[in-house]
Amino acid sequence: MSSTLVTKPLARRASRNSSPLHKWTIERIIFTTLNTTFLLALAAIMLYPLLNTLAISLNDGSDAVRGGIGIWPRDFSLQNYKVVFNMHTIYQAFFISVLKTVVVVATNLFFTSMLAYALSRKEFIFRRPITLIFVLTMYFDAGLIPNYLLIKDLGMLNSFQAYWVPTIISAFNLIILRTYMKSIPDEIFESARMDGAGEFRTWWQIVMPLCKPALAVVGLFVAVGSWNSWLDTLLYNSGDPALTTLQYELQKLLASSMNAGVNVANAGGDAAAAHGGQITTPIALRSAIAMVAAVPILFVYPFLQKHFVSGLMIGSVKG
User: Fold this and answer.
1) Which stretches within 65-185 are classed as H helix?
2) pLDDT (tens digit, 9 = 90+) per residue, 89-121?
3) How far is CA 251 from CA 50, 259, 290, 305, in A?
4) Which of 2, 8, 217, 276 has its CA 20 to 30 A from that of 202?
5) CA gap 36, 298 in Å, rounded
6) d(CA 115, CA 121)
């Protein structure tokens, strides 16, 4: 009876100490308020350019020239998107951009992860000098002209190979994957060798499945870089209209928009044309193309977001 009387007050005291309200001190309330306010302000700053571009793309072109558009269109119109989707190069450029991104991501992950596995193994005696060579390429570059001459001498001008061959290995991604693979326990590799697995089978069937978070991070980096790139099209494939990309078409419109007062039908040439007798403007049209170019990445990122933080942190800290 006495033990019951003693334990009941103790239980009530423990329940009061563990209540959520008891843990909310003044310092924590202030920190949570300031932290939430800062993050909301940061999110608004990050979202405003996207919403502003969307509003301009949905606004009448002639009215958009006046400026002053926020996150809501002042004179709603779908004319800009009609012009974009009536460009005879838009669908070919979109297809090439998608194909280019898929091939670049696949080849980069395949070869970079293979090299990262070799450099992560302690028994590979040349891992340090080879790693140093790749790190030096992050600080020293031959330059634009030598790269162009190299692509020309390899016979890859005006060819799809110019998009993916120079991007097979990335030094930055190599370091992330190598560091991630070094965090894998050695017992796993010893168990694989005892089962008769060779190096290639160990890399493909054991290491690659364990590196999915890091591969997702690297794949997202490569995909965004490849999707947004237009300089490679300008340098290597501008002579072949069949190899144009969506971003290169956007770049041409950005260049044409520098000519103030020129209609898109005249300034853009083959890049754009008037639709239905109506005229749009470069500032509105480039916003529409920017939204069309950004939509695929916006849809891909949520599927990789769960791996993004864990893969990047583990790949950069452990090892």
Assistant:
1) 79-85, 90-120, 127-136, 144-153, 161-164, 171-182
2) 888 898 999 999 999 999 999 999 999 999 999
3) 18, 14, 10, 29
4) 217
5) 24
6) 10
Tens-digit pLDDT profile for residues 32-60: 899 999 999 999 998 898 899 999 989 88
Q: Indicate the pLDDT class of residue 168, thresholds 50, 70 and 90.
A: very high
Distance of CA 205 to the CA centre of its chain: 27
Nearest to 268 by CA among 287, 288, 293, 251: 251
Q: According to DSSP H, which parts of 137-261 are helical?
A: 144-153, 161-164, 171-182, 186-194, 199-202, 208-210, 212-228, 231-236, 246-256
The torsion region of residue 196 among left (phi > 0), alpha (psi -120 to 50) and beta comes to left
pTM of the model: 0.75
Other Cβ atoms closer than 10 A to 128: 10
- Residue 77 C-alpha from the chain's centroid: 30
Per-residue pLDDT reduced to its tens digit, 63-87: 887 888 888 888 888 888 888 888 7
Contact 81, 288 (CB under 8 A): yes
274: buried, middle or exposed (CB in 10 Å: 19+, 13-18, 0-12)? middle
> Of 273, 282, 295, which Cα lies nearest the Cα of 250?
282
CA angle 280, 285, 291 (to 5 degrees): 145
Distance CA 143, CA 302 (A): 36
- Give the integer Cα–Cα distance in Å for 80 and 289: 9
DSSP state of 76: B
Mean pLDDT of 116-138: 91
Strand partners, 308: none
> Burial of 159 by CB count in 10 Å (0-12 exposed, 13-18 middle, 19+ buried)?
middle
Question: In a 3-state reduction of DSSP, which class is residue 101?
Answer: helix
